[in-house]
Design goal:
Layout (H helix, E strand, L loop, with lengths): L2 E8 L22 H6 L9 E9 L6 H15 L4 E7 L5 H12 L4 E5 L12 H12 L6 E6 L2 E4 L4 E2 L8 E2 L7 E4 L2 E4 L22 E5 L7 H9 L3 E6 L7 H12 L3 E6 L26 H17 L2
Parallel strand pairs: 1-2, 1-3, 3-4, 4-5, 11-12, 12-13
Antiparallel strand pairs: 5-6, 6-9, 7-8, 9-10
Helix pairs in contact: 3-7, 5-6
The structure holds succinic acid.
Succinic acid (SIN) binds next to loops.
Length: about 325
């Protein structure tokens, strides 16, 4: 069981700029997945298959692509001769795709996402090392779950946060810390591989996905956008609250109205790190439901799946 399948979806790792010293003004999703593999001499002779699943900037990642990605990853992971699957992806929505795959697949083999902060044409591109590390991790005996290999660290999907707009080590696992390190071509595990409870079968037709919006609390937030979204037919709302998931009185009132109108609401935090915690006696009476450890973007994925599940069982 040695084969590794690499699914290309685009991103900066596949980006191309007009000049090698330009790491900003490039076109993401320009270089094909076979060329990305060919650019890593250490991958020559490895038993690899590659497939161009999409070629886009991850800001344009959509329900149809997520669905196809989950289906192709599941198909390859089910093959006995495949040890693991690698997905090349953009960094901008990496934490959303990783969490989505974690929830719907819960793989027992490694499904490793990787990306880059500099385009493939950059003087010192980070993509080739990240891709090599991802393949190493996908072939690691005993590794399991949706993992993200970047800048020498391995993150569990649920812990991943993009913290910096341009640095090569842009990602963190926050309070949990990385699951493993990738050093000198070896995987150094630091804690157990992530376990997942799959929402198996929760893959609606792409055009049928519920509408879940993310909005934030801020000074002067009065809830007008909540009322506009409810009026427009939104199905779910995630509010990125201040601090420990708090919201202004005006926003709270509008979110309660949304709940009363049948909209699912979750309260997360706009802070870069840290969960939303309840007090020692549990949630305060009447509190809006908390998203706990989930970032606003991951909470949005959970609401998408929850709404889909409730529709399919209705
Ligand atoms: C993208 O997310 O596709 C572009 C940005 C990046 O990969 O860093």
């Amino acid at each position: 069981m040695q084969n590794i399948v690499i699914l290309g979806t685009g991103g900066t790792i596949a980006g191309a700029a007009a000049r090698p010293d330009d790491s900003i003004g490039y076109q993401a999703g320009s270089v094909g997945v076979q060329a990305l593999v060919a650019a890593v001499p250490a991958l020559a002779g490895r038993s690899l298959e590659s497939e161009q699943l999409a070629q886009l900037d991850s800001k344009d990642m959509d329900a149809a692509t997520w669905r196809r990605l989950a289906e192709r990853a599941a198909t390859h992971l089910a093959r006995p001769e495949v040890a693991g699957v690698v997905v090349t992806h953009g960094t901008d929505t990496l934490e959303e795709t990783a969490w989505f795959l974690h929830r719907v697949l819960a793989p027992t083999k490694p499904l490793v996402l990787t990306a880059a902060m500099r385009p493939a044409t950059a003087l010192s591109a980070d993509g080739p090392q990240n891709l090599l590390d991802a393949v190493t991790l996908a072939a690691e005996p005993g590794a399991a779950g949706v993992l993200v290999a970047l800048a020498g660290q391995v993150h569990a999907a649920g812990d991943l946060r993009k913290l910096h707009s341009t640095r090569v080590d842009a990602f963190s696992s926050g309070d949990a810390g990385p699951v493993a390190l990738l050093q000198a071509g070896r995987v150094r595990p630091l804690r157990p591989w992530p376990q997942a409870t799959a929402w198996a079968g929760v893959l609606p037709a792409a055009e049928a996905w519920p509408w879940v919006a993310v909005l934030a609390n801020h000074a002067g937030a009065d809830g007008r956008e909540v009322r506009a979204l409810v009026q427009a037919g939104v199905h779910g709302l995630v509010v990125a609250g201040t601090g420990n998931g708090t919201v202004s009185q005006g926003l709270q009132a509008a979110l309660r109205e949304a709940q009363a109108a049948g909209v699912l609401v979750r309260r997360s935090s706009r802070c870069a790190l840290g969960p939303v915690l309840d007090g020692p006696d549990g949630p305060a009476p009447g509190a809006l439901p908390s998203a706990g450890e989930r970032t606003p973007w991951q909470a949005r994925v959970d609401l998408l799946l929850e709404l889909t599940l409730s529709r399919s069982s209705a």
